[in-house]
Amino acid sequence: MANYTDYEVEDFLHDDFFINWVQQGTAEQNKFWSEWLTNNPDKQKVAESARQIIMAISVKLIEPGLTDDEVDGIAANVQNRLQNGGREAIIRSLKFYQTQWFRIAAVLAVFVTIGIIFLKTRNNQAFTGQTDNQLNELVNVVNNTTQSKLVQMADGSLAVLKPGSGIKYPRSFKAGREAFLEGEAFFEIHKNPEMPFLVHSHDMVVRVLGTSFTVRSFSIDKEFKVIVNTGKVMVYNQHEKNTGTKSNVTLLPNQTATYTVKLSRVKKESLPVPLILSTPVAPKEFTFDNATLADIIDKIDKAYDVNIEYDRATLGNIHLSASLSGMPLDEKVKLICRAINTSCQFIDGRIIITTQNLNHNTAN
């Protein structure tokens, strides 16, 4: 067995055992990597970067896409632009251009780097000249429709807000990450060990580092629910200053907590059937082999309780092979759009796939 503690991103991209886990994920592999990542927290970011690259490469049209020359050209073009922009120190020299697979990995890694640079620059510009009051201004979203609404927060975390629900959150998370919920929402929180995310709902507080879970907390209910899909979640009474008291509950995937309002008590239970987005189930449910786009989107709609809008007649019969497990909702949609050369928009809580850039040769 390789000494994974010495691995960097490119080493993971060369490792067949790691690649097979990302792409197929047997029960044995899931157990090994779950334990290894838990025992090696300093390597989690490196492994996650490699995993995202491999998942991105796994999404492909059944018909061949880029030629070797096109891939080489893209890589050279992007690297030239980075060097001309003074970013030569950002990208390390990669030594795995021998095959098209690894050249594509390099291209994706470069584009990810560009995105990170752009976001950091844009965020720094946005903070300039703003007062603390402006930074802490709350965004208020209320869902008065009959369908779930997608809410994208400042750090990229998502909330799928259910009908009859409302959420408030700071326009900027510079001072801390938190949201205030009335009703029900499914959350996908970006991981940030240095800044936990808090969801406040009546007397209940849900504390996470980076995970996905559902909170159901309508004011008329006598009990509130928290259901965990991935990661680890702590649930406690907000009036208890000491988070180590016995009423606090820590939840793992496929566990639920019920907060009884009258007793101010939290009870933990395991779910009888694993959730579709949970770690044991998602790799199987969101790995597609020559599936139609319609089937893939139907699966996403059902899992997240959303309604992705697209031209089913034009796009529905395009066939894809894709591994989408482990990605948040918006990344799943974006990756599909890149694969079929379309674009997506997230407008007023709606998810819309447009066909303006569609290469009609990809449709069957």
UniProtKB/TrEMBL annotation:
GO terms for molecular function: sigma factor antagonist activity. Residues 285-353 form the Protein FecR C-terminal domain. Keywords: Membrane, Transmembrane, Transmembrane helix. The keyword Membrane applies. Residues 145-233 form the FecR protein domain. Pfam families: FecR (PF04773), FecR_C (PF16344). The chain crosses the membrane at residues 101-119. This is DUF4974 domain-containing protein. It comes from Mucilaginibacter celer.
